[in-house]
Amino acid sequence: MFPDYHCHTNLCGHASGEMEDYIAAALLKGLQELGFSDHLPMYWLPESERNPGLAMSEQELPLYVEKVIKLQKKYSDLSIKLGIEADYIPGNNMELNRLLEMYPFDYVLGSVHFVNGWAVDSPANKNDYEHLNIDEIYTDYFSYLQIAARSGLFNIMAHPDLIKKFGYRPKKNLASLYEQTAEIFAKSGVCAEVNTAGLRYPAREIYPSLELLRLFKKYGVAVTVGSDAHFPEQVGEDWEEAALYLKEAGYRETAVFSGRRLKMVKI
Ligand SMILES: [Zn+2]
Ligand SMILES: [Zn+2]
């Protein structure tokens, strides 16, 4: 079975469980590989404005890295990868690159959680969707995602249609925007993440939609799979469903990473 490349730990301030709890859960589910991808410090804000309930602090980052490396040595029956989930915030690429280059990450998940400073997936902002123009926010979200993919900072674009989280769907047909996104992912050499967390939210659907995943396949974009676990028991959640979904889109292999280099592995 493919690895779970998206899991958090209590370090981020809004997940529970220590790394070893996530490892135990992965072993229990029969996974052979698990990647930690906790939230990178909020590098685009001055330290005093960073929210400890959203991401680890910059002082904690080296400890996070050390902990993963220590666990890699401790567990011989599970391959453990050092990943990180980094937000894409326009105008801060140098600072992000500086942080990413300091540590030997196996892969970097790139996420668009903020569009024009507005947190698209925050439950606190859920009601905003009632009076926003949904077609417009989808278009803005995907333009951010495209710029993020092109930045060269990320290996994998996380939950590519996160904007659907609360179940608000566009009225306009966005097929050409999706097609353009797939083309940009392919040209930029980034993977797309198949993220099962969408099933836990009103979207009731894996990220990305089957329509978008089929376009990724059409353009030759590789994929990884992630549960976006914020609790140990969510590791590898809905893996059978993800396997069927991948098959339906025509995928026969997924990508794995070491030292930010990609290798394809049969499902
Ligand atoms: Zn999180
Ligand atoms: Zn995320």
Q: Could you give the count of β-strands? A: 11
Note the gap between the termini: 6 Å
CATH A-level architecture:
Alpha-Beta Barrel
Q: What letter string, H or E per element, gives the SSE order?
A: EHEHEHEEEHHEHEHEHEE
The value of Rg in angstroms is 17 Å
Query: Overall mean pLDDT score?
Result: 97
Taken together, the total number of domains comes to 1
Q: What does the main sheet amount to?
A: 7 strands, parallel
List keywords for this structure.
alpha/beta, 267 residues, seven-stranded parallel beta sheet, two-stranded antiparallel ribbon
Secondary structure elements and their pairing?
Blueprint: E1 4-7, H1 19-28, E2 33-36, H2 61-74, E3 79-87, H3 93-101, E4 107-111, E5 114-115, E6 118-119, H4 128-131, H5 134-150, E7 156-157, H6 175-188, E8 191-195, H7 210-218, E9 223-226, H8 239-249, E10 253-258, E11 261-266
Parallel strand pairs: 1-2, 2-3, 3-4, 4-7, 7-8, 8-9
Antiparallel strand pairs: 5-6, 10-11
Helix pairs in contact: 5-6, 6-7, 7-8
Bound molecules: zinc ion (ZN) (2 copies).
The site of one zinc ion has 5 residues, from loops.
